[in-house]
Protein backbone atom coordinates (compact mmCIF):
# COMPACT_ATOMS: atom_id res chain seq x y z
CA UNK A 1 0.00 0.00 0.00
CA UNK A 2 1.26 3.52 -0.69
CA UNK A 3 2.21 5.69 2.24
CA UNK A 4 -0.07 8.40 3.57
CA UNK A 5 2.00 10.95 1.67
CA UNK A 6 1.34 9.16 -1.60
CA UNK A 7 -2.43 8.81 -1.42
CA UNK A 8 -5.34 11.19 -1.63
CA UNK A 9 -7.22 12.10 1.50
CA UNK A 10 -10.38 11.00 -0.27
CA UNK A 11 -9.35 7.64 -1.70
CA UNK A 12 -6.43 5.26 -1.95
CA UNK A 13 -5.36 6.17 -5.47
CA UNK A 14 -1.57 6.41 -5.66
CA UNK A 15 0.22 9.68 -6.31
CA UNK A 16 0.44 10.90 -9.89
CA UNK A 17 3.85 10.26 -11.45
CA UNK A 18 4.94 13.14 -13.71
CA UNK A 19 7.41 10.90 -15.53
CA UNK A 20 4.47 8.92 -16.88
CA UNK A 21 2.26 11.86 -17.80
CA UNK A 22 4.65 14.68 -18.72
CA UNK A 23 6.87 14.10 -21.81
CA UNK A 24 9.54 16.53 -20.59
CA UNK A 25 9.65 14.94 -17.14
CA UNK A 26 9.85 11.51 -18.77
CA UNK A 27 12.76 12.58 -20.97
CA UNK A 28 14.54 14.22 -18.05
CA UNK A 29 14.19 11.11 -15.92
CA UNK A 30 16.44 9.25 -18.37
CA UNK A 31 19.37 10.94 -16.63
CA UNK A 32 18.66 8.80 -13.56
CA UNK A 33 17.57 5.64 -15.34
CA UNK A 34 14.12 6.55 -16.64
CA UNK A 35 10.66 6.48 -15.06
CA UNK A 36 10.03 4.08 -12.20
CA UNK A 37 8.46 0.86 -13.34
CA UNK A 38 4.97 -0.22 -12.43
CA UNK A 39 6.30 -2.74 -9.94
CA UNK A 40 9.09 -0.56 -8.56
CA UNK A 41 9.66 -1.02 -4.85
CA UNK A 42 9.89 1.83 -2.41
CA UNK A 43 12.91 2.05 -0.13
CA UNK A 44 12.87 -0.01 3.10
CA UNK A 45 10.96 1.75 5.81
CA UNK A 46 9.65 4.34 3.40
CA UNK A 47 12.60 6.71 3.91
CA UNK A 48 12.44 8.10 0.35
CA UNK A 49 9.25 10.16 0.29
CA UNK A 50 8.29 13.04 -2.03
CA UNK A 51 8.55 15.57 0.79
CA UNK A 52 12.08 14.53 1.70
CA UNK A 53 13.29 14.32 -1.88
CA UNK A 54 11.83 17.70 -2.85
CA UNK A 55 13.12 19.40 0.31
CA UNK A 56 16.63 18.01 -0.18
CA UNK A 57 16.69 19.05 -3.83
CA UNK A 58 15.45 22.54 -2.93
CA UNK A 59 18.19 22.86 -0.32
CA UNK A 60 20.74 21.63 -2.85
CA UNK A 61 19.63 24.17 -5.45
CA UNK A 62 19.69 26.90 -2.80
CA UNK A 63 23.27 25.93 -2.01
CA UNK A 64 24.17 26.15 -5.70
CA UNK A 65 22.68 29.65 -5.71
CA UNK A 66 24.96 30.54 -2.81
CA UNK A 67 27.94 29.20 -4.75
CA UNK A 68 26.92 31.42 -7.67
CA UNK A 69 27.32 34.40 -5.31
CA UNK A 70 30.89 33.47 -4.32
CA UNK A 71 32.67 36.06 -6.51
CA UNK A 72 30.66 38.77 -4.78
CA UNK A 73 31.04 37.22 -1.34
CA UNK A 74 34.80 37.07 -1.73
CA UNK A 75 35.44 40.49 -3.21
CA UNK A 76 33.00 41.98 -5.76
CA UNK A 77 30.59 43.45 -3.18
CA UNK A 78 33.43 45.45 -1.68
CA UNK A 79 35.67 46.49 -4.60
CA UNK A 80 33.71 48.87 -6.75
CA UNK A 81 30.18 48.63 -8.10
CA UNK A 82 30.67 47.19 -11.58
CA UNK A 83 32.14 43.78 -10.70
CA UNK A 84 29.04 42.55 -8.85
CA UNK A 85 27.04 43.21 -12.02
CA UNK A 86 29.44 41.61 -14.48
CA UNK A 87 29.48 38.50 -12.27
CA UNK A 88 25.66 38.62 -11.87
CA UNK A 89 25.95 38.03 -8.14
CA UNK A 90 24.48 41.21 -6.67
CA UNK A 91 22.57 41.07 -3.37
CA UNK A 92 20.87 43.82 -1.37
CA UNK A 93 21.69 42.11 1.92
CA UNK A 94 25.34 43.13 2.52
CA UNK A 95 24.77 46.64 1.19
CA UNK A 96 21.72 47.32 3.34
CA UNK A 97 23.60 46.04 6.38
CA UNK A 98 25.45 49.34 6.19
CA UNK A 99 22.94 51.45 4.30
CA UNK A 100 20.07 50.81 6.75
CA UNK A 101 22.08 51.20 9.93
CA UNK A 102 22.33 47.58 11.10
CA UNK A 103 26.12 47.88 11.26
CA UNK A 104 25.69 50.78 13.71
CA UNK A 105 23.07 49.07 15.85
CA UNK A 106 20.16 51.25 14.70
CA UNK A 107 16.68 49.84 15.28
CA UNK A 108 14.39 49.75 12.21
CA UNK A 109 11.46 52.21 12.20
CA UNK A 110 12.53 53.79 15.49
CA UNK A 111 15.98 55.18 14.68
CA UNK A 112 16.32 57.73 11.93
CA UNK A 113 18.78 56.84 9.15
CA UNK A 114 21.34 59.23 7.73
CA UNK A 115 20.69 60.47 4.21
CA UNK A 116 17.50 60.72 2.18
CA UNK A 117 15.96 57.36 3.10
CA UNK A 118 15.25 58.43 6.72
CA UNK A 119 13.69 55.09 7.76
CA UNK A 120 13.75 51.45 6.68
CA UNK A 121 11.52 51.04 3.61
CA UNK A 122 10.38 47.45 4.27
CA UNK A 123 7.22 46.06 5.89
CA UNK A 124 7.35 45.35 9.61
CA UNK A 125 7.80 41.57 9.55
CA UNK A 126 10.62 41.82 7.00
CA UNK A 127 12.23 44.49 9.14
CA UNK A 128 12.03 42.14 12.13
CA UNK A 129 13.62 39.38 10.02
CA UNK A 130 16.47 41.72 9.08
CA UNK A 131 16.94 42.81 12.70
CA UNK A 132 17.02 39.23 14.01
CA UNK A 133 19.76 38.45 11.48
CA UNK A 134 21.69 41.48 12.74
CA UNK A 135 21.33 40.25 16.33
CA UNK A 136 22.57 36.80 15.31
CA UNK A 137 25.50 38.30 13.43
CA UNK A 138 27.95 38.64 16.29
CA UNK A 139 31.05 38.68 14.09
CA UNK A 140 33.93 40.89 15.14
CA UNK A 141 36.49 42.23 12.74
CA UNK A 142 36.46 44.39 9.67
CA UNK A 143 33.27 45.87 8.25
CA UNK A 144 33.67 43.65 5.19
CA UNK A 145 33.75 40.55 7.38
CA UNK A 146 30.63 41.71 9.21
CA UNK A 147 28.84 42.16 5.88
CA UNK A 148 29.86 38.67 4.81
CA UNK A 149 28.61 37.16 8.04
CA UNK A 150 25.36 39.13 7.85
CA UNK A 151 24.74 37.70 4.39
CA UNK A 152 25.57 34.19 5.64
CA UNK A 153 23.19 34.48 8.60
CA UNK A 154 20.42 35.75 6.34
CA UNK A 155 21.15 32.96 3.84
CA UNK A 156 20.74 30.41 6.64
CA UNK A 157 17.39 31.91 7.65
CA UNK A 158 16.26 32.07 4.02
CA UNK A 159 17.28 28.43 3.63
CA UNK A 160 14.76 27.55 6.34
CA UNK A 161 12.14 29.49 4.34
CA UNK A 162 13.12 27.47 1.26
CA UNK A 163 12.58 24.20 3.09
CA UNK A 164 9.18 25.41 4.32
CA UNK A 165 8.17 26.34 0.76
CA UNK A 166 9.26 22.94 -0.58
CA UNK A 167 7.36 21.01 2.10
CA UNK A 168 4.20 23.11 1.79
CA UNK A 169 4.00 22.94 -2.00
CA UNK A 170 4.65 19.18 -1.89
CA UNK A 171 1.75 18.64 0.50
CA UNK A 172 -0.76 21.06 -1.02
CA UNK A 173 -1.85 18.78 -3.88
CA UNK A 174 -2.05 15.46 -2.09
CA UNK A 175 -2.03 13.29 -5.22
CA UNK A 176 0.61 15.37 -7.01
CA UNK A 177 3.50 15.80 -4.55
CA UNK A 178 6.10 15.56 -7.30
CA UNK A 179 4.87 18.78 -8.90
CA UNK A 180 6.87 20.55 -6.19
CA UNK A 181 10.01 19.55 -8.09
CA UNK A 182 9.18 22.51 -10.32
CA UNK A 183 9.91 24.73 -7.33
CA UNK A 184 12.92 22.81 -6.09
CA UNK A 185 14.65 22.76 -9.48
CA UNK A 186 13.61 26.19 -10.75
CA UNK A 187 16.81 27.93 -11.93
CA UNK A 188 15.41 31.40 -11.24
CA UNK A 189 14.69 30.33 -7.64
CA UNK A 190 18.34 29.44 -7.03
CA UNK A 191 19.64 32.59 -8.74
CA UNK A 192 17.43 35.06 -6.87
CA UNK A 193 16.89 33.43 -3.46
CA UNK A 194 19.47 35.52 -1.60
CA UNK A 195 19.09 38.84 -3.43
CA UNK A 196 16.56 40.13 -0.89
CA UNK A 197 14.24 38.90 1.85
CA UNK A 198 11.24 37.93 -0.32
CA UNK A 199 11.41 34.24 0.64
CA UNK A 200 9.93 35.04 4.05
CA UNK A 201 6.66 36.21 2.48
CA UNK A 202 6.77 33.38 -0.07
CA UNK A 203 7.14 30.78 2.71
CA UNK A 204 4.23 32.22 4.69
CA UNK A 205 2.09 32.32 1.54
CA UNK A 206 2.95 28.70 0.69
CA UNK A 207 2.00 27.67 4.23
CA UNK A 208 -1.27 29.60 3.88
CA UNK A 209 -2.05 27.77 0.62
CA UNK A 210 -1.43 24.47 2.40
CA UNK A 211 -3.76 25.42 5.23
CA UNK A 212 -6.51 26.43 2.82
CA UNK A 213 -6.17 23.12 0.98
CA UNK A 214 -6.87 21.42 4.33
CA UNK A 215 -10.00 23.52 4.91
CA UNK A 216 -8.45 25.60 7.70
CA UNK A 217 -9.74 29.07 6.94
CA UNK A 218 -8.53 30.60 10.21
CA UNK A 219 -4.97 29.34 9.81
CA UNK A 220 -5.01 30.48 6.19
CA UNK A 221 -6.10 33.96 7.20
CA UNK A 222 -3.51 34.24 9.97
CA UNK A 223 -0.70 33.21 7.61
CA UNK A 224 -1.87 35.50 4.80
CA UNK A 225 -1.97 38.39 7.27
CA UNK A 226 1.57 37.60 8.41
CA UNK A 227 2.74 37.25 4.82
CA UNK A 228 1.23 40.64 3.99
CA UNK A 229 3.12 42.07 6.97
CA UNK A 230 6.29 40.86 5.23
CA UNK A 231 5.38 41.81 1.63
CA UNK A 232 2.30 43.39 0.14
CA UNK A 233 1.48 40.88 -2.63
CA UNK A 234 -0.01 38.02 -0.49
CA UNK A 235 -3.08 40.17 0.23
CA UNK A 236 -3.96 39.81 -3.45
CA UNK A 237 -4.89 36.15 -2.85
CA UNK A 238 -8.06 37.29 -1.10
CA UNK A 239 -9.38 38.64 -4.42
CA UNK A 240 -9.60 35.25 -6.22
CA UNK A 241 -10.85 33.70 -3.01
CA UNK A 242 -13.74 36.19 -3.05
CA UNK A 243 -14.67 35.15 -6.60
CA UNK A 244 -14.44 31.42 -5.92
CA UNK A 245 -16.43 31.62 -2.69
CA UNK A 246 -19.01 33.74 -4.50
CA UNK A 247 -19.49 31.06 -7.15
CA UNK A 248 -19.63 28.30 -4.54
CA UNK A 249 -21.69 30.29 -2.05
CA UNK A 250 -19.10 29.72 0.72
CA UNK A 251 -19.21 33.19 2.24
CA UNK A 252 -18.53 32.07 5.79
CA UNK A 253 -15.11 30.71 4.92
CA UNK A 254 -14.21 33.80 2.90
CA UNK A 255 -15.13 36.23 5.67
CA UNK A 256 -13.39 34.08 8.26
CA UNK A 257 -10.19 34.10 6.19
CA UNK A 258 -10.43 37.84 5.46
CA UNK A 259 -11.07 38.93 9.04
CA UNK A 260 -8.35 36.73 10.50
CA UNK A 261 -5.92 38.01 7.83
CA UNK A 262 -6.72 41.60 8.76
CA UNK A 263 -6.40 40.75 12.45
CA UNK A 264 -3.01 39.07 12.20
CA UNK A 265 -1.67 41.87 9.99
CA UNK A 266 -2.87 44.45 12.48
CA UNK A 267 -1.46 42.52 15.43
CA UNK A 268 2.02 42.65 13.91
CA UNK A 269 1.83 46.22 12.65
CA UNK A 270 -0.04 47.98 15.45
CA UNK A 271 2.82 48.17 18.00
CA UNK A 272 5.16 49.79 15.45
CA UNK A 273 2.33 51.87 14.01
CA UNK A 274 1.66 53.41 17.44
CA UNK A 275 5.23 53.64 18.74
CA UNK A 276 6.97 54.77 15.53
CA UNK A 277 4.35 56.03 13.06
CA UNK A 278 6.83 57.86 10.81
CA UNK A 279 9.05 54.81 10.45
CA UNK A 280 6.09 52.48 10.02
CA UNK A 281 4.55 54.36 7.10
CA UNK A 282 7.86 54.68 5.20
CA UNK A 283 7.23 51.48 3.25
CA UNK A 284 3.86 52.71 2.03
CA UNK A 285 4.97 56.23 1.15
CA UNK A 286 8.09 54.90 -0.55
CA UNK A 287 5.99 52.51 -2.65
CA UNK A 288 3.75 55.37 -3.76
CA UNK A 289 6.54 57.86 -4.45
CA UNK A 290 8.97 55.47 -6.12
CA UNK A 291 9.82 56.42 -9.68
CA UNK A 292 9.25 54.15 -12.68
CA UNK A 293 12.09 51.69 -12.32
CA UNK A 294 13.81 48.56 -13.61
CA UNK A 295 12.00 45.68 -15.24
CA UNK A 296 8.65 47.28 -16.00
CA UNK A 297 7.00 48.06 -19.30
CA UNK A 298 6.70 51.58 -17.91
CA UNK A 299 10.48 51.88 -18.13
CA UNK A 300 10.44 50.84 -21.79
CA UNK A 301 7.81 53.50 -22.51
CA UNK A 302 9.77 56.10 -20.60
CA UNK A 303 13.10 55.39 -22.27
CA UNK A 304 11.80 54.78 -25.77
CA UNK A 305 9.60 57.88 -25.90
CA UNK A 306 11.57 60.19 -23.56
CA UNK A 307 8.29 60.79 -21.77
CA UNK A 308 8.21 61.94 -18.16
CA UNK A 309 6.02 59.36 -16.44
CA UNK A 310 5.37 60.64 -12.94
CA UNK A 311 4.87 58.15 -10.09
CA UNK A 312 1.28 59.32 -9.60
CA UNK A 313 0.51 58.65 -13.27
CA UNK A 314 2.03 55.17 -13.17
CA UNK A 315 0.22 54.40 -9.89
CA UNK A 316 -3.13 55.49 -11.31
CA UNK A 317 -2.86 53.54 -14.53
CA UNK A 318 -1.45 50.47 -12.77
CA UNK A 319 -4.43 50.53 -10.40
CA UNK A 320 -6.86 50.87 -13.31
CA UNK A 321 -5.22 47.94 -15.07
CA UNK A 322 -5.51 45.82 -11.93
CA UNK A 323 -9.20 46.72 -11.63
CA UNK A 324 -9.72 45.64 -15.24
CA UNK A 325 -7.85 42.41 -14.59
CA UNK A 326 -10.02 41.71 -11.55
CA UNK A 327 -13.19 42.34 -13.53
CA UNK A 328 -11.94 40.03 -16.26
CA UNK A 329 -11.14 37.38 -13.67
CA UNK A 330 -14.62 37.79 -12.22
CA UNK A 331 -16.22 37.12 -15.60
CA UNK A 332 -13.83 34.22 -16.21
CA UNK A 333 -14.54 32.70 -12.80
CA UNK A 334 -18.31 33.00 -13.00
CA UNK A 335 -18.64 31.90 -16.65
CA UNK A 336 -16.02 29.14 -16.84
CA UNK A 337 -17.45 25.65 -17.52
CA UNK A 338 -16.01 24.53 -14.19
CA UNK A 339 -15.04 26.64 -11.22
CA UNK A 340 -11.35 27.57 -11.62
CA UNK A 341 -8.87 26.16 -9.18
CA UNK A 342 -7.66 28.47 -6.42
CA UNK A 343 -4.01 28.12 -7.47
CA UNK A 344 -4.88 29.14 -11.03
CA UNK A 345 -6.53 32.40 -10.01
CA UNK A 346 -3.88 33.09 -7.36
CA UNK A 347 -1.20 32.82 -10.02
CA UNK A 348 -3.10 35.07 -12.41
CA UNK A 349 -3.72 37.88 -9.90
CA UNK A 350 -0.11 37.96 -8.68
CA UNK A 351 1.20 37.77 -12.25
CA UNK A 352 -1.07 40.69 -13.20
CA UNK A 353 0.33 42.73 -10.31
CA UNK A 354 3.88 41.99 -11.44
CA UNK A 355 3.13 42.81 -15.08
CA UNK A 356 1.45 46.14 -14.32
CA UNK A 357 3.71 47.32 -11.50
CA UNK A 358 6.10 50.21 -12.07
CA UNK A 359 9.09 48.16 -10.94
CA UNK A 360 10.13 44.52 -11.33
CA UNK A 361 13.09 43.41 -9.25
CA UNK A 362 14.54 40.05 -10.37
CA UNK A 363 13.67 38.38 -7.04
CA UNK A 364 9.96 39.03 -7.61
CA UNK A 365 9.91 35.84 -9.66
CA UNK A 366 9.98 34.02 -6.31
CA UNK A 367 6.42 35.17 -5.69
CA UNK A 368 5.20 33.27 -8.73
CA UNK A 369 7.23 30.05 -8.72
CA UNK A 370 5.21 28.11 -6.08
CA UNK A 371 1.93 29.39 -7.54
CA UNK A 372 3.01 28.41 -11.07
CA UNK A 373 3.88 24.89 -9.90
CA UNK A 374 0.37 24.50 -8.47
CA UNK A 375 -1.45 26.30 -11.28
CA UNK A 376 0.19 24.69 -14.32
CA UNK A 377 2.34 21.68 -13.37
CA UNK A 378 3.78 21.01 -16.83
CA UNK A 379 7.54 21.10 -17.28
CA UNK A 380 7.49 22.44 -20.85
CA UNK A 381 5.54 25.58 -20.04
CA UNK A 382 7.32 26.08 -16.74
CA UNK A 383 10.77 25.86 -18.36
CA UNK A 384 9.82 28.24 -21.16
CA UNK A 385 8.84 30.78 -18.52
CA UNK A 386 11.96 30.10 -16.46
CA UNK A 387 14.19 30.60 -19.51
CA UNK A 388 12.65 34.05 -19.97
CA UNK A 389 13.21 34.89 -16.30
CA UNK A 390 16.84 33.77 -16.40
CA UNK A 391 17.29 35.93 -19.51
CA UNK A 392 15.93 38.87 -17.55
CA UNK A 393 18.13 38.04 -14.53
CA UNK A 394 21.22 38.25 -16.73
CA UNK A 395 19.87 41.23 -18.66
CA UNK A 396 19.41 43.55 -15.69
CA UNK A 397 22.92 42.94 -14.37
CA UNK A 398 24.47 43.42 -17.79
CA UNK A 399 22.49 46.65 -18.21
CA UNK A 400 23.69 47.92 -14.84
CA UNK A 401 27.24 46.92 -15.80
CA UNK A 402 26.85 48.99 -18.98
CA UNK A 403 25.56 52.05 -17.14
CA UNK A 404 28.04 51.93 -14.23
CA UNK A 405 31.18 50.62 -15.92
CA UNK A 406 33.74 52.98 -17.35
CA UNK A 407 34.27 50.82 -20.44
CA UNK A 408 30.57 50.50 -21.24
CA UNK A 409 30.69 46.71 -21.09
CA UNK A 410 27.31 45.02 -20.95
CA UNK A 411 23.88 45.60 -22.43
CA UNK A 412 22.79 49.00 -23.72
CA UNK A 413 19.23 50.17 -23.15
CA UNK A 414 17.94 48.51 -26.34
CA UNK A 415 19.25 45.12 -25.23
CA UNK A 416 17.82 45.58 -21.76
CA UNK A 417 14.43 46.36 -23.26
CA UNK A 418 14.57 42.98 -25.01
CA UNK A 419 15.31 41.32 -21.66
CA UNK A 420 12.31 43.08 -20.11
CA UNK A 421 10.18 41.98 -23.07
CA UNK A 422 11.33 38.39 -22.54
CA UNK A 423 10.19 38.54 -18.92
CA UNK A 424 6.86 40.10 -19.86
CA UNK A 425 6.16 37.70 -22.73
CA UNK A 426 7.20 34.63 -20.71
CA UNK A 427 4.85 35.57 -17.87
CA UNK A 428 2.03 36.39 -20.30
CA UNK A 429 2.55 33.02 -22.00
CA UNK A 430 2.13 31.14 -18.74
CA UNK A 431 -0.93 33.27 -17.90
CA UNK A 432 -2.44 32.42 -21.31
CA UNK A 433 -1.92 28.70 -20.75
CA UNK A 434 -3.54 28.89 -17.30
CA UNK A 435 -6.53 30.76 -18.75
CA UNK A 436 -6.82 28.12 -21.46
CA UNK A 437 -6.88 25.42 -18.77
CA UNK A 438 -9.71 27.27 -17.02
CA UNK A 439 -11.74 27.51 -20.24
CA UNK A 440 -10.83 23.95 -21.24
CA UNK A 441 -10.69 21.87 -18.04
CA UNK A 442 -9.92 18.78 -20.11
CA UNK A 443 -6.50 20.32 -20.77
CA UNK A 444 -5.80 21.07 -17.12
CA UNK A 445 -3.18 18.51 -16.00
CA UNK A 446 -4.48 18.53 -12.43
CA UNK A 447 -8.03 17.68 -13.48
CA UNK A 448 -7.25 14.98 -16.01
CA UNK A 449 -7.43 12.28 -13.33
CA UNK A 450 -10.84 13.42 -12.12
CA UNK A 451 -9.67 15.79 -9.39
CA UNK A 452 -11.49 19.06 -8.87
CA UNK A 453 -9.43 21.55 -6.86
CA UNK A 454 -6.85 19.90 -4.58
CA UNK A 455 -5.73 23.30 -3.27
CA UNK A 456 -9.31 24.53 -2.86
CA UNK A 457 -10.10 23.24 0.63
CA UNK A 458 -13.85 23.61 1.21
CA UNK A 459 -14.22 24.53 -2.47
CA UNK A 460 -12.92 21.16 -3.63
CA UNK A 461 -15.92 19.43 -5.18
CA UNK A 462 -18.41 21.98 -3.81
CA UNK A 463 -21.48 22.62 -6.00
CA UNK A 464 -21.92 25.93 -7.77
CA UNK A 465 -24.38 28.44 -6.30
CA UNK A 466 -23.93 31.36 -8.68
CA UNK A 467 -22.75 31.33 -12.30
CA UNK A 468 -23.06 33.68 -15.25
CA UNK A 469 -24.36 31.44 -17.97
CA UNK A 470 -25.08 27.72 -18.00
CA UNK A 471 -24.19 25.67 -14.96
CA UNK A 472 -21.32 23.23 -15.09
CA UNK A 473 -22.38 20.22 -17.17
CA UNK A 474 -22.60 16.79 -15.63
CA UNK A 475 -19.20 15.22 -15.16
CA UNK A 476 -17.36 18.50 -14.76
CA UNK A 477 -15.69 19.33 -11.45
CA UNK A 478 -17.96 21.82 -9.76
CA UNK A 479 -21.13 20.15 -10.96
CA UNK A 480 -23.47 19.33 -8.06
CA UNK A 481 -23.11 15.59 -8.40
CA UNK A 482 -19.32 15.71 -8.42
CA UNK A 483 -17.57 15.20 -5.09
CA UNK A 484 -13.96 14.56 -4.14
CA UNK A 485 -13.09 10.96 -4.87
CA UNK A 486 -15.48 10.75 -7.83
CA UNK A 487 -13.52 10.02 -10.96
CA UNK A 488 -14.33 12.16 -13.97
CA UNK A 489 -13.48 11.03 -17.46
CA UNK A 490 -11.64 13.85 -19.20
CA UNK A 491 -10.80 11.64 -22.13
CA UNK A 492 -8.36 9.51 -20.08
CA UNK A 493 -9.05 6.19 -18.48
CA UNK A 494 -9.29 6.35 -14.66
CA UNK A 495 -7.72 3.77 -12.42
CA UNK A 496 -10.24 1.15 -11.41
CA UNK A 497 -10.69 -0.14 -7.93
CA UNK A 498 -8.80 -3.25 -8.95
CA UNK A 499 -5.73 -1.16 -9.73
CA UNK A 500 -5.64 -1.53 -13.50
CA UNK A 501 -3.36 0.84 -15.37
CA UNK A 502 -4.68 4.37 -15.75
CA UNK A 503 -3.65 7.23 -17.97
CA UNK A 504 -1.13 8.33 -15.34
CA UNK A 505 0.88 5.17 -16.08
CA UNK A 506 1.12 6.05 -19.74
CA UNK A 507 3.12 8.78 -21.47
CA UNK A 508 1.86 12.37 -21.21
CA UNK A 509 -1.33 13.44 -22.87
CA UNK A 510 -0.37 15.17 -26.14
CA UNK A 511 -3.14 17.73 -25.61
CA UNK A 512 -1.16 19.21 -22.70
Question: What integer is the average pLDDT?
Answer: 87
Distance between the termini: 30 Å
Main beta sheet: strand number and arrangement?
A: none
Binned, the helix content reads: 55-70%
Number of domains: 1
Structural class: mainly alpha
**Computed Rg:** 23 Å
Sum up the overall morphology in one term: globular
Number of strands: 0
Total count of helical runs of at least 4 residues: 21
Determine the strand fraction and express it as a percent band. Answer: under 5%
Q: Low-confidence runs (pLDDT<50, min 5 residues)?
A: 1-12, 477-512
Succession of helices and strands: HHHHHHHHHHHHHHHHHHHHH
Explain the overall architecture:
The chain is mainly α and 512 residues long. The protein has one domain (49-466). The protein has helices spanning 23-29, 50-68, 70-76, 82-86, 92-99, 124-136, 143-172, 181-184, 187-192, 198-213, 217-228, 238-248, 251-275, 277-280, 282-289, 297-305, 311-335, 342-356, 365-375, 379-404, 413-439. The model is unreliable at 1-12 and 477-512 (pLDDT under 50).
Write the layout of secondary structure elements.
Elements: H1 23-29, H2 50-68, H3 70-76, H4 82-86, H5 92-99, H6 124-136, H7 143-172, H8 181-184, H9 187-192, H10 198-213, H11 217-228, H12 238-248, H13 251-275, H14 277-280, H15 282-289, H16 297-305, H17 311-335, H18 342-356, H19 365-375, H20 379-404, H21 413-439
Helix pairs in contact: 2-7, 5-7, 6-7, 7-10, 10-11, 10-19, 11-13, 12-13, 12-17, 12-18, 17-18, 18-19, 18-21, 20-21
Amino acid sequence: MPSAEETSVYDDRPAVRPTRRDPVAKAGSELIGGPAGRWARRSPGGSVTPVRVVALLAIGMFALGMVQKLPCYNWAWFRGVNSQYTHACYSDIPHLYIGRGFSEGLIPYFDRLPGDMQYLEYPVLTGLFMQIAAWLDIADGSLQYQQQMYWMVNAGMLLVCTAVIAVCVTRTHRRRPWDALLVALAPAFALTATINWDLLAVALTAAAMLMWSRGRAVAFGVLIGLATAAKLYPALLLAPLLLLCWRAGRWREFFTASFTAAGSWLLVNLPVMLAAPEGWKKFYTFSQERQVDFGSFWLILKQRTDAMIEPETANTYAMLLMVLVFLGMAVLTLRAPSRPRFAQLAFLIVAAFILTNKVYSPQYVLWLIPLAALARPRWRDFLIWQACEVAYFLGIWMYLAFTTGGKNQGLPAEGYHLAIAAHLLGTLYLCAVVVRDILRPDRDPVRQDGSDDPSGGVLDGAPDRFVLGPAAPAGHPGAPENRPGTLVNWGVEPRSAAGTASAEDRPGDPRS
